[in-house]
């Protein structure tokens, strides 16, 4: 391990070289060893590589951007604290994401979004990243743009999902315009994986009061009900996400939303019942809870919290 440390120190020192070729070669080597050697990742962070990586994200060189972003992603597996404690790191990631359609290469955009998703595994980092409106705005623009590569959209969706896991972030994600492009992806995107990820974000955003009117504006309730229709061919994960979203909407919107869902008729009830009978353990639990709300009305109480369902939006 001592030999590895010395190698890392030498490579990191070269990142400050006046020679562009020396910097590029050292960066490429750091990307390679951080990918294949888990043991060496903390040593790279400890050697002071992260500030260099952040600075390189401002470079106009696509190869440099890609190597720096990929190395950051590799480090995020084991060195999340080191990344988040680096001054200016989130600003650098925001810069790279903001220029997703111009000066930042698609590979660098994807690695930056994936780095956010990796860091967001830590609960305490969700409010920090969620407070960065510029990051959320850039992620929303990535999923909105018709020119974004599918991989960029998928990584941006995963980052948005991680941000939305923190309840107080959801309002801001909605305010920054995420709802319309999310439902557009669900309706128009043919790739199952992207529809699954988009519907997962929608399910989280449904857990705040602002979602009720915003979903109504884009006919979101109709879309969610259609996803439950056995004839649409939605994947099991998408259908469970739709159930989760409907449950959260009913919790936040109360009887007004519950009445709208019930008026959808047998199509929605049959879909929810099927998830309750054949879904995953988590899906069954949510489907049963949703059926209780719809069949018994808004008087149903959440046994875990003791609050009426329309008083407790977050799920």
Automatic annotation (TrEMBL):
Keywords annotated in UniProt: Repeat, Ubl conjugation pathway
Pfam families: ARM_PUB
Keyword Cell membrane: no
InterPro entries: ARM-like, ARM-type_fold, ARM_PUB, Armadillo
The organism's place on the tree of life at top rank: Eukaryota
Domain U-box: 12-294
Gene3D superfamilies in the cross-refs: Leucine-rich Repeat Variant
PANTHER family for the chain: ARM REPEAT SUPERFAMILY PROTEIN, U BOX DOMAIN-CONTAINING
Protein name: U-box domain-containing protein
Originating species: Xanthoceras sorbifolium
């Amino acid at each position: 391990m001592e030999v590895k440390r010395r190698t890392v120190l030498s490579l990191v020192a070269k990142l400050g070289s006046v020679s562009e070729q020396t910097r590029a070669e050292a960066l490429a080597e750091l990307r390679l060893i951080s990918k294949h050697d888990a043991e060496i990742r903390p040593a790279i962070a400890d050697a002071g590589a992260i500030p260099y990586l952040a600075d390189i994200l401002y470079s106009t060189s696509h190869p440099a951007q890609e190597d720096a972003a990929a190395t950051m992603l590799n480090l995020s597996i084991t060195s999340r604290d080191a990344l988040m404690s680096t001054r200016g790191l989130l600003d650098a990631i925001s810069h790279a994401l903001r220029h997703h359609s111009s000066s930042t290469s698609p590979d660098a955009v994807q690695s930056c979004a994936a780095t956010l998703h990796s860091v967001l595994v830590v609960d305490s980092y969700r409010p920090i990243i969620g407070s960065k409106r510029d990051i959320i705005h850039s992620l929303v623009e990535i999923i909105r743009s018709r020119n974004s590569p599918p991989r960029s959209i998928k990584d941006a969706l995963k980052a948005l999902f991680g941000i939305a896991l923190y309840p107080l972030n959801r309002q801001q994600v909605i305010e920054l315009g995420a709802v319309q492009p999310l439902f557009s992806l669900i309706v128009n995107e043919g790739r199952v994986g992207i529809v699954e990820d988009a519907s997962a974000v929608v399910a989280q955003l449904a857990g705040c009061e602002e979602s009720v009117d915003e979903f109504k504006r884009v006919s979101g309730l109709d879309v969610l009900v259609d996803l439950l229709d056995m004839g649409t061919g939605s994947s099991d994960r998408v259908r469970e996400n739709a159930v989760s979203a409907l449950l959260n909407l009913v919790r936040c919107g109360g009887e007004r939303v519950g009445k709208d869902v019930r008026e959808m008729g047998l199509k929605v009830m049959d879909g929810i019942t099927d998830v309750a009978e054949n879904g995953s353990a988590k899906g069954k639990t949510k489907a049963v809870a949703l059926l209780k709300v719809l069949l018994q009305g808004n008087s149903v109480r959440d046994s875990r919290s003791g609050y009426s369902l329309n008083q407790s939006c977050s799920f």
